[in-house]
Design a protein that fits this description.
The protein has a 6-stranded mixed β-sheet with strand order 8-9-10-5-11-12, sandwiched between helices. It has a 4-stranded antiparallel β-sheet with strand order 4-3-6-7. By secondary structure, the chain is an alpha/beta fold. The chain folds into 2 domains: 3-244, 3-Layer(aba) Sandwich (Rossmann fold), CATH 3.40.50.300; 247-314, Alpha-Beta Plaits, CATH 3.30.70. α3 (113-123) crosses α4 (128-142) and α8 (238-245) packs across α11 (318-325). The two termini are 39 Å apart. Mean pLDDT is 88; it is low at 1-8. The protein has helices spanning 62-69, 91-95, 113-123, 128-142, 157-169, 187-202, 214-220, 238-245, 262-267, 291-303, 318-325; strands spanning 3-5, 8-10, 13-25, 35-47, 51-55, 77-82, 85-86, 98-101, 175-179, 206-210, 223-228, 231-237, 250-255, 272-278, 282-287, 308-314. The chain contains 11 helices and 16 strands. The radius of gyration is 24 Å and the shape is globular.
Length: 331
């Protein structure tokens, strides 16, 4: 069901956090305060069918927040709703619609791949007559059909990670909660993981994911939230977050003219500042003008004898935005 707001249509929330607090008592003798705050009045609305990234330094409260969403930890105060179900009031019903993969999850090396999925299918109380078909479907989705009868102990790191996701989706939940799922994967494994997330999202899943690999999150996420010491610093659509983080317009120009003094030429132009060289023959700079002024600049550059083959904007990155907002403090 979609909600009407004025003339716009708003997608339903898959995950809703309202005034969420989580406070831990520290052991006697701990330095500093007697309590640690892992979630400090967190308010988040994650729309259905989004890939949502939760970002922050170690100790920011990300894992604690994910565990509360999954009903594995009880909040000190506040409310969590997943798929329209209050997690505190009906945790079992809420958990039935959630697939959770912890940053460190258990694998049993002496089980075969299909046996592992069968075990968790029964743990989720799936109808026995549906389990074999669902296992086959998940193995096809994960690209593990050829490993159905293999022992888990003999799988590669990437295959084990895929199997962990298989465990999380075996009961076909609407929401996936993934905590640092790409840790330890090589570049090929990370690419395959991103493709898998896109595939699952394309099948209608809402994906909430934490990762310190911010470039990977940029490739996957539609929205992000940045937290520190349990507090929300910024949240919104990814393009909005990156746009807000951009302090100035940066442009990159590349030329195929060996010997042309590009950086020197640009430094003398009106509206250009902060020129830096880009290998092999190019430059990046801040530009104060609009599109028409940039076109005039490029035209003048060509008239000066430079063979321009690329003019492109230089966007803000999620890593730069996070570093700009975060002080690096932990709870």
């Amino acid at each position: 069901m979609f909600l009407e707001r004025g003339n716009s249509v708003e997608a339903p929330a898959a995950i809703l956090l309202e005034n969420l607090f989580k406070v831990y008592d520290l052991p006697p003798g701990s330095a500093g305060a007697a309590q640690a705050v892992a979630a400090d009045n967190l308010n988040l609305r994650i729309t259905a069918r989004e890939v949502f990234g939760l970002v922050g330094p170690n100790g920011a409260g990300k894992t604690t927040t994910l565990k509360m969403i999954c009903g594995l930890l009880v909040p000190t105060a506040g409310r969590i709703v997943v798929n329209g179900i209050d997690v505190d009031r009906d945790p079992e019903a809420a958990q039935g619609g959630i697939g959770y993969l912890a940053d460190f999850f258990s694998l049993y090396d002496d089980l075969k791949v299909w046996e592992y999925l069968d075990y968790f299918a029964h743990a989720y109380k799936m109808a026995p007559e549906t389990i074999a078909g669902r296992i086959a479907e998940v193995l096809r989705l994960l690209g593990l059909e050829g490993k159905r009868g293999a022992f888990i102990g003999g799988l590669s790191r990437g295959m084990k990670q895929r199997l962990g996701i298989g465990r999380a989706i075996i009961h076909d939940p609407a929401v996936l909660v993934l905590d640092e799922p790409a840790v330890g994967l090589d570049p090929k494994g990370r690419i395959e993981f991103r493709q898998l997330v896109h595939e699952l999202n394309g099948r209608g899943k809402t994906v909430l994911i934490t990762s310190h690999l911010l470039h990977d999150l940029e490739e996957m996420c539609t929205s992000v939230a940045i937290i520190e010491k349990g507090r929300l610093l910024r949240s919104g659509r990814l393009e909005q977050i990156l746009g807000e983080g951009a302090r100035e317009r940066r442009v990159r120009i590349m030329v195929a003219s060996p010997g042309f003094p590009l950086a020197e030429w640009l430094s003398r132009r009106e509206g250009v500042r902060g020129v830096t060289g880009v290998a092999p023959i190019g430059a990046q700079f801040s530009f104060a003008g609009g599109e028409a002024e940039l076109a005039s600049l490029v035209k003048a550059l060509v008239a000066a004898g430079a063979s321009v083959y690329a003019v492109e904007p230089v966007g803000e990155t999620l890593e730069k935005v996070v570093m700009g907002l975060s002080s690096g403090e932990i709870t």
